[in-house]
Each structure stands twice: as C-alpha cells, then as structure tokens.
Inverse folding.
C-alpha cells in the first residue's frame, strides 16, 4: 500500500507537469490569437464575425457526420495499436464523407445563408465539410500524442495552428472581401496543427490492415453512436442561440455576441482543455489498470475552481471597459454581453475538464441524456425569448442561468462517476 501510494503521488505530480506543458503552449497560442483579434476586429465587421460564427456551427455539424466521433476515443483502448487504428478510421471515414457532403454544401449552402439573412456565407459554404475533417483529424492526432504522453508536441501544435491563423487572417483580408479571411484563418488553424503533429514521421505509424481498422472501429461502435447523438445535441445547443439572434436581432447583434463569446471562452479553452486532456489520459490509464481515480478527480476540481474564480471574476468586472479599449468602439455591446457570459463560462470551465469521466467508466447513456436535456432546455429559452420578444440582455440572462444549472447537474454526476470502482472482468475493451 505504501509503495502504491508513493506511485500515485508521482502520477499526480506528473499530471500537473503534463497539464502545465499543454497549458503553457496553449497560453502562447492564445496570446497569438488575442494579439491578432484587435487587428481583425478593425479589419472585419460584426457581420463578418457573424458569418464566421455560422460557418463554425456548420463545421461542428459536419464533423459529426464526417468521422462519427472516433477522434474522441483514441485514448480509450488498452492497446496502443488500437488507438492508432481509431486515428486511421477517423481519416478514412472523413475523406470518404467529405466527397459526399461537399456537393451537398454547394447545393444547399446558399439556401441556408438566405434563411439566416447572411448572404456572405453562401460563397464559403462548400468549404464546411473540409473544415470538419481538418477539425476532427487534429483532435485525433492530438489525442494520439497525448496518449503516448507527448504533451509537449501536442501543446506546440496549438502554437503552430495559431501562427497560421494570424497569418492567414491578415492575408485573407487582402485577398477577399467579407468574411473570407476569417474563414481562411479558421481552416489554417487546424491545418497548421495537423502539419505539426505529423511532421515527425517517427510519431506516425504505417498504414494498418483495413480489416483491423474496421475491427477497432466496431469494438467502439456503441460508444461512437452515443457520442454522435450527444455531440449532435451539443452542436444544436450551440446553434440555437446563434440562429435565434440572427433571426430575431440581425447579423450585427450576432457578430457582437460571437466576439464576446470567443474572447470569454479563451481561458476555458486554455486551462480547461489542457487540464481536461491530461485528466482524461490519466483517468483512462488508471481505470485500464483496474484502479479508481477519485483522488485525481478531487485534486483536479479544487484547482480549476480557484482558477475559474480568479479569471472569470476579473472578466465579470472588467469586460465593459476592456472590450472597446482593445477591440475598438464598434464593440461596446460585445463588452456588455461578456458580463453575463462570463458567469456561464465559469461553470463550463469547472465542469468541462471533468466531463469525460462518464466515458472512462462506461456510463455512455448519461452523455446522451445530459446533452438532450441541455438541448431541449436551450430551445425552450429561445422559444420563450422569440414569443415574448425579449431584448438581447434578457435573453442572455435567461440563457446563462439555464446553461449554468445544466453544468451544475453535470458536475454532480461526474463526481458520482469518479467514485466508481473498475471491475476488471467486466470492463469494456
């Protein structure tokens, strides 16, 4: 017992060392993005940011269809070879599906852009399937590196992606009118990450047997289906407020909301993803070894609560002053919208790094049920706002309250899942 306790302490210390590698690299990446945003906010209009927001929602939808969410499962197999086969399954499924979806995007893109009153989106809609593949493949490759404890390389890919983002955003402004530069920068972010993650051939295994790739995919087929449903619900949940704002308040208001949300979630993306990816790897590893990870959960949650309070407490107080100062006077409303959004972002930051606990212990149905509840409740808030003709501030207050309550429910559920003890004979492969 003493030897195991000593070993477990080492695991906890290495946990925060690996999280620090991801966080520091991601911090540099986010600093690059933040440095570019005040420039982009002066080069591009709120309507351009609205088009980018709707484009990214389309990418989220197509990413689900493109790869069946196998990119999120790379860390779960006990055998390293099966993890790599899931990366290959992501690439194969993605390539085939993009060939099918791209003509559909050419056909239906202008119709959707017209319905959303965002005509500038129509020109770029055919790139949505390709962007979905790049997004999913970057997640799969990052998961592969993290599974092999190459957290430094994973973090460096974030920096590479943001450097490409900053460069293409400026170049795109020179080459295209409207939101083209922003969309080009979005594509470049994930293309840059992929390039960095595959540049060292020693990290990339040779192509495997198609039979073995299919076998690995089938082994996790049930979990993939659960994730498809839950991720569809998640994407719908994200789309609802954007679609509501576009239809009820116009592209200008959607652009203000989009910039406010992009900035407010930066700390969550930086700290939450770094801690969450490391937590997921460690928890899956302990569970595969037949050990509980409740102590890991406790130590993680204490630190992210303290981080979240400091970061989002400052955002709550300073956003109305900082946004127009940094991004220009055209973005005063974005600073006002950031105040309530910072409350919801705090609860998301506390919950998100721990949200894959249910996947580790095999509680797959919970994922679908929680996301379904969140989607339905978000739709009800938007419906109430539409029928009562609420202003933006009233809608945001109700939206943040609803989201925060759902995150609290998830926090309690993940705490319960973290207390499960593995049964080696009955665990999933």
């Amino acid at each position: 017992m003493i030897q195991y306790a000593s070993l477990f302490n080492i695991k906890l210390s290495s946990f925060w060392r690996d999280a620090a590698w991801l966080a520091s690299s991601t911090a540099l990446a986010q600093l690059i993005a933040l440095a570019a945003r005040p420039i982009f906010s002066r080069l591009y209009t709120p309507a351009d940011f609205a088009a980018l927001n709707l484009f990214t929602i389309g990418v989220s939808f197509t990413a689900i269809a493109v790869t069946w969410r196998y990119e999120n499962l790379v860390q779960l197999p006990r055998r390293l070879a099966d993890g790599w086969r899931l990366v290959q399954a992501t690439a194969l499924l993605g390539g085939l599906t993009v060939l099918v979806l791209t003509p559909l995007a050419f056909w239906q893109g202008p119709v959707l852009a017209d319905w959303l009153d965002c005509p500038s989106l129509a020109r770029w809609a055919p790139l949505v399937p390709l962007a979905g593949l790049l997004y999913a493949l970057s997640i799969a490759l990052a998961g592969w590196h993290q599974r092999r404890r190459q957290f430094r390389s994973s973090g460096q890919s974030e920096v590479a992606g943001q450097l490409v983002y900053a460069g293409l955003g400026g170049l795109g402004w020179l080459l295209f009118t409207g939101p083209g530069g922003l969309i080009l920068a979005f594509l470049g972010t994930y293309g840059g990450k992929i390039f960095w993650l595959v540049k060292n051939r020693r990290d990339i295994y040779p192509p495997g047997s198609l039979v073995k790739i299919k076998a690995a995919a089938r082994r996790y087929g049930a979990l993939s289906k659960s994730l498809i449903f839950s991720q569809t619900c998640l994407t719908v949940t994200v789309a609802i407020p954007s679609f509501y704002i576009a239809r009820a308040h116009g592209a200008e208001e959607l652009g203000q909301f989009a910039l406010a949300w992009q900035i407010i979630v930066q700390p969550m993306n930086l700290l939450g993803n770094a801690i969450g990816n490391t937590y997921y790897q460690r928890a899956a590893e302990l569970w595969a070894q037949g050990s509980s990870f409740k102590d890991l959960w406790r130590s993680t949650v204490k630190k992210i609560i303290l981080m979240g309070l400091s970061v989002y407490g400052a955002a709550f107080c300073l956003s109305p002053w900082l946004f127009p100062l940094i991004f220009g006077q055209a973005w005063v409303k974005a600073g006002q919208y950031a105040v309530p959004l910072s409350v919801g972002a705090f609860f998301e930051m506390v919950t998100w790094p721990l949200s894959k606990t249910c996947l580790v212990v095999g509680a797959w149905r919970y994922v679908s049920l929680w996301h379904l509840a969140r989607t339905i409740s978000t739709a009800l808030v938007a419906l109430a706002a539409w029928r009562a003709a609420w202003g933006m501030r009233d809608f945001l207050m109700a939206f943040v309250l609803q989201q925060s309550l759902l995150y609290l429910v998830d926090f309690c559920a993940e705490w319960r899942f973290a207390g499960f003890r593995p049964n080696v004979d009955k665990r999933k492969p």
About this structure: DSSP finds 15 helices and no strands in the chain. The chain has one domain: 2-418. The CA atoms of residues 38 and 86 lie 39 Å apart. The mean pLDDT is 86.
